[in-house]
Amino acid sequence: MGEYWRRAEEHGDIVWTSTSGCETTETSLGSPSRSGHGRDPEEGDVDVVEGPPIRLTLFGPLALTVEGEPVRGLRSRKAVLLLALTATDDTMTRDEAAALLWPDLERTHRRAEFSRVVYDLHRRLGPVLGRRGGPLRLDPHLLGHDLLDLAAAEASDDPECWRAALTRFRDPFLQDVPAGGPLRDWADDHRRRQDARLAALTRRGVQHDLLDDLAAVAAPSRLPVPLGPLFGREDLVREVLDAVASPGPALITLVGEGGIGKTRVALDVAQSARSDAAFDTVGFVALNAVRHADFVIESVCRALGTTGGSRPWEAVRARVEGRRVLLVLDNVEQIDDMWTWIRRTLDSFPTLCLLATARRPVGLVGEQLIPVRELDPSTAATLLGYQLRKSGVPERDRPDDARLRALCDHLDGLPLAIELAAVAAGRVGWAGLVDRVLEEITVNPAGERDRPERHRTLRAAVHWSYRLTPPASRRVFADLATFGGAADVDAIAAVSGRSPRTTRMALEDLVAIGLVRRRSTGVQAQPYYGLRQSVIPVAEELLDRGGRAALVEARHTAHFLARAEATRRGGRDASGRNQLDRVEALDGDIHEIRLAMQRAAGRGTVEIAAWCRALSLYWKVRHHDHEARRWLDWTLARRADLPTSTTAALLIDAVFVDDKLGDRSAAVRHAGELAALAVTSADPEIHLWVRAHAAGRALFDGDATRARNAAESVAQDAQAAEHREVGVTMLATLMYAEILTGDLRAAARAADRGLAACDEAADMIWRPVLLGGLARVRLVEGDPAGSARHLMSALELTVRVGDAFHESPVFLEVAGCLTALGQFEAAARTLGTLAHIQRQAGIVTMVTDIDPDALAGRIREAIGGTDFETQFAAGERLTAAVAAEQLRVVLSP
Question: Residue 54: helix, strand or coil by DSSP?
């Protein structure tokens, strides 16, 4: 049988003529231009093409040509991909090829699409895939491709043939296969196989003393093949490409924690830089196996395609001089004095651009840092979904988007952790993974044999970073495992037993390599530090191994208990902070405090009782009433081991919480227990608290005269005993009692005494209540400017305190003052905000002689029902802070 190609000039088509015996068949291939091949004299004006006329390019962009011209008219790109599959794997079945090309279709639809593509190929190119119904086989006489030529080079003994193959196959194998899905995974696997073949061919050149010539061709193009598509880093890649394209010497460092994807981004940048011809040479140097800067130059020589010999710097100069070269240095942080090598290199080669990946900056003048951050929730969930498919997790077992996002958030959006989680899901199933994902990816290695050792478990990745830190930072890293979240430097220093300055330096070192996060609480000016969620198991393991877990936990409890006790006591602390400042500071510590209480519950009642007393003021101010009741009930149920004075103080707090929650029966029960305790106790503080409660109870019950007499007596005794907490509380009670009896002068005197006591004790909690009462007095006395001044001060403080129990009477006083001043619309909005505050806090009672319903009726009568409802509804939509800001404008002179 003889085959040849001819051009039918009269039709403008290429025709394949196959002659076998008496049978002749012709197949049209379209009309490419003349290629300059030889001519058959017997055919006259017909071009004769020796060898396969159809060419499939597999290295670099996928292309199908006839005599050098692209084949046009194919209905789908999948036709060329099918040829690539068949050329690469001659054992592939039709069903396997269809599953790779149409993974989302059912089997029946896959087969239908496959048949359409095969028909299209046969129609345009002839029987390139063999006979219909038979196995997939490319006809080598009809279609040639790169892998056939590579096999011929491997079979040849001619070094020039090797050189030609290495020169020709510079680009990645199946470079433009679409990202994502099983087809890309298949292509990545075969890309690694072809790279191994080319590496073997290069080694044969070494044995024939052709290393310099061959490596110069092959090595720079042999960039590592990424293991999968790049998710969510497109903007970052463009930013890095712009940076490396800047003229002159340059050092650009991608910084981020281990497993964040620095190497992957650098590879994508290198591939893009080479494809765009922005550089004459692009090389990649993996430094994970290099242990000293003196050996780096040898790796650079190999990346640039030269042996270096005894004079490696001169060899590099020969490769770099006069050329624009991009050199990627991966994992530079692990080599001591690497900065000196980089400095020397940049000074020696003006046209060289270095792109480094590191967990911390190199630290050179002119270095440009580009951080690689964790993936955003949407991208992280997309990556996890892709990795789950890749790991073989069945579609029916895969979670919905919300659960994917939740798990990715638990993994800090760290690509390595997400990849390891998907591998673990393939091993133990999704259901077995959710509750112990960190345990699985921390301890159990991923199954891929070609994954770098430092990326096979999360523990390995963390230890890779951990070993780069000095001993002080390692100790702080382990001690952070005792915290439940984030804490400030002073707290971490106290727990770790080091000075704040040393601790801050250690924390910043850990932040730099991505093991610790630094954040602002929104309350404190100083930052808070905490472990990343994904590294906590490793830190806990290190803390237990060091034998310091019990000591660090005890320090943690003692430190935060001391902070809570300082908040309750009032006055100014050593740093000049008043009580309200300390309440706000405790907002950032409440998570740690709750953790410490959970631990303390297993050690007995006495420690929990200390916590309840220390937190009593904070719970009241921040409306943590249900939390307070839960812990108070737990402690009082186990009161047998408590001193009588402690039990009495807890009962006082319990009665206050009961009143705030509107639970009258519980308040009566606890009050009865307190009275019974006072009968059997000689402790004067207990009796003082019992009398104070009686005065407050009388005020709640509306018995103003009894409340006034009791409050005056208790206030005097508290002053004599220097009990500031009881004293200020009773003066506020006395002020309200005098208001209820109508003696405004006496109310003003009580308010002035209370404010003086607040000044002495630096108490910011009762001050807004006293100011609100004093504003009422000034208004009745005909001093609206003085009333407005007091109300503005009260508003500023009460909103900052955030105590709705104290906010409510202040806002009601403001509404009354505005009504008296004729500011009816502002008064209606204020009543709306008051209703919102009370509804949010669950307040059912309020001690005041102002009837909110009667006040609302006066305002409604003044502006009309419709306007009142409009303004009231507008006020209901405001927070206390926003309403206070608006009221300051209204009340200002």
Answer: strand
In the chain, the N- to C-terminal Cα span, in Å, equals 109
| Residue 148 backbone class (left: φ over 0; alpha: ψ -120 to 50; beta: rest) | alpha
CA distance 50 to 603: 91
* Residues facing 55 on adjacent strands: 65, 144
Helix (H) or strand (E) holding 65: strand 63-66
Q: What is the DSSP letter of 456?
A: S
Question: pTM, whole model, 2 decimals?
Answer: 0.58
Instruction: Write the single-letter amino acid at 44.
Output: G
Q: Which of 442, 424, 444 is nearest to 434 (CA)?
A: 424
**Is beta strand 23-28 parallel, antiparallel or unpaired with respect to 54-57?**
unpaired
644, 650, 655, 657: CA torsion to nearest 10: 180
Per-residue model confidence as pLDDT tens digits over 593-650: 999 999 998 888 999 999 999 998 888 877 788 899 999 999 999 988 888 888 988 9
Q: Establish how many alpha carbons lie within 13 A of residue 649's alpha carbon, considering only the half-sphere containing its beta carbon.
A: 20
Q: Does position 39 have pLDDT exceeding 60, yes or no? A: no
Rg for the chain (alpha carbons), in Å? 40
- Confidence at residue 575, expressed as pLDDT on a 0 to 100 scale: 67
Instruction: Give the dihedral sign, CA 531/532/533/539.
Output: negative
> Is the Cβ–Cβ distance between 326 and 281 less than 8 Å?
yes
Alpha helices in 622-723 (DSSP H): 625-636, 644-661, 664-680, 684-700, 704-720
What is the residue type of 525? A
Residue 846's pLDDT is 54
Alpha carbon distances (Å) from 165 to 151, 205, 251? 10, 12, 34
pLDDT of residue 576: 66
Provide φ and ψ at 572, rounded to 5°: -100, 145
Cα 248 from Cα 84, distance rounded (Å): 41
3-state SS assignment for residue 171: coil
Torsion of CA 6, 9, 12, 18, to 10 degrees: -20
Q: Which two tokens stand for residue 462?
A: 């963390």
d(CA 297, CA 445): 33
Place of tokens 């909005």: 829
- The Cα-based distances of 665 to 659, 668, 674, 801 in angstroms read 10, 5, 14, 29
Q: How far is the C-alpha of 685 from the C-alpha of 805, rounded, in Å?
A: 25
Are 587 and 486 spatial neighbours (Cβ–Cβ below 8 Å)? no
- Distance of alpha carbon 69 from alpha carbon 14, whole angstroms: 12
Q: Kindly list the distances between the CA atom of residue 708 and the CA atoms of 233, 690, 718, 731, 877, in Å, as whole numbers in the listed order.
A: 70, 16, 15, 9, 37
Cα dist. 683→482, 674, 690 in Å? 39, 13, 11
Whether residue 10 is predicted with pLDDT greater than 50 in this model: the reply is: no
Handedness of CA 131, 134, 140, 146 (dihedral sign): positive
Which of 200-220 are b and which e, b meaning 16 or more Cβ less than 10 Å from the residue's Cβ?
A: ebbeebeeeebbbbbbbbbbb
- Other CB atoms within 10 A of residue 112 CB: 13
177-186 contact pairs (CB < 8 A, 24+): 177/62, 177/81, 179/229, 179/230, 180/229, 180/386, 181/103, 181/389, 182/99, 182/100, 182/103, 182/389, 182/390, 183/81, 183/100, 183/101, 183/103, 184/228, 184/229, 185/228, 185/390, 186/85, 186/100
| Residue with tokens 């009354």, as numbered in its chain | 816
